[in-house]
């Protein structure tokens, strides 16, 4: 077996392989997928000298631990966490050399939710429809990591960045999501639409890579009939029967039958990936372009 590989010692709550995703396949029923916090994934790739599309590890809440079979350069960004190599603390947000056989431990998130681990050469699992991303909804791509999983690594193609540490945005104290109302805002009463863009919500602990669920005022419908299933897009804010908005993230379904009251600007979605349960959420209406 090649020495360009990585053995998983501790998989954590949910650690997946992610890259830029597989856009353009919604007509086949395939979601985009890809890293939820795209800027963090891009950063770790830059830090270790990878091209932007290289596959990284995305951890959730409690990190992971891995053991490379050859010397690699790694970088961890996204959620703030303690990073160690064989028990020795190393910098977060900076390139670090990890010798062959050493244990890289990415600890629990101190703030934020998802940490990203870039490795020189990238994770080299076989692409599916042009992407190495794990898609929790469709099951495409590699399965979520389990203890004992061995992942192949690619050959390094660049020189790692010469930096001590890289500034990154902190997880949001308040998640502000700019939205364009529609296409089904007319399925809700004017009072409900007003509440949606003026009242405070909170991030629910029930969210995942498919969608960010919220807790707060239930939105009352003006129409109570059945809506035929229709196409869904990244950032769509769907309102299920309980009336609490759900923001669709990277692994969202490509169709759905609950009304979409609004769509979140794509630039605001990376912050949603790092919003811990209980974070206040505010939806701000912007004009249609």
From TrEMBL:
InterPro entries per the record? CT_A_B (IPR003778), Cyclophilin-like_dom_sf (IPR029000), PxpC (IPR052708)
Q: Which residues form a coiled coil?
A: none
Task: Domain (Carboxyltransferase): give its ranges.
Answer: 27-289
Name it: Biotin-dependent carboxyltransferase family protein
Q: Which UniProt keywords apply?
A: ATP-binding, Hydrolase, Nucleotide-binding
Q: Does the keyword Nucleotide-binding apply?
A: yes
Domain of life here? Bacteria
Please name the NCBIfam families in this protein's record: urea_amlyse_rel (TIGR00724)
């Amino acid at each position: 077996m090649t020495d360009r590989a990585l053995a998983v010692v501790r998989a954590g709550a949910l650690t997946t392989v992610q890259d830029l995703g597989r856009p353009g396949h919604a007509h086949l029923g395939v979601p985009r997928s890809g890293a939820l916090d795209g800027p963090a994934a891009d950063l770790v790739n830059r830090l270790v000298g990878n091209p932007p599309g290289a596959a990284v590890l995305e951890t959730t809440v409690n990190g992971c631990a891995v053991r490379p079979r050859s010397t690699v350069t790694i970088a961890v960004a996204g959620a703030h966490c303690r990073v160690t190599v064989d028990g020795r603390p190393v910098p977060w947000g900076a390139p670090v050399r990890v010798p062959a056989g050493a244990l890289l431990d990415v600890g629990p998130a101190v703030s934020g939710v998802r940490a990203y681990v870039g490795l020189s050469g990238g994770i080299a699992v076989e692409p599916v429809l042009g992407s190495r991303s794990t898609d929790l909804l469709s099951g495409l791509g590699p399965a979520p990591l389990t203890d004992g999983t061995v992942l192949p690594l690619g050959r390094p193609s660049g020189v790692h960045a010469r930096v001590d540490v890289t500034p990154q945005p902190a997880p949001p104290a308040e998640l502000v999501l700019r939205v364009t109302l529609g296409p089904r805002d007319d399925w809700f009463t004017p009072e409900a639409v007003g509440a949606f863009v003026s009242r405070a919500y909170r991030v629910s602990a029930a969210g995942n890579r498919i969608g960010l669920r919220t807790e707060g005022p239930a939105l009352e419908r003006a129409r109570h009939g059945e809506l035929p299933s229709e196409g869904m897009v990244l950032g769509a804010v769907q309102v299920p029967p309980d009336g609490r908005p759900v923001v669709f993230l990277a692994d969202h379904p490509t169709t759905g039958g609950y009304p979409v009251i609004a769509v979140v600007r794509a630039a605001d979605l990376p912050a949603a990936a790092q919003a811990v349960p209980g974070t206040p959420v505010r939806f701000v209406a912007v004009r249609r372009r």
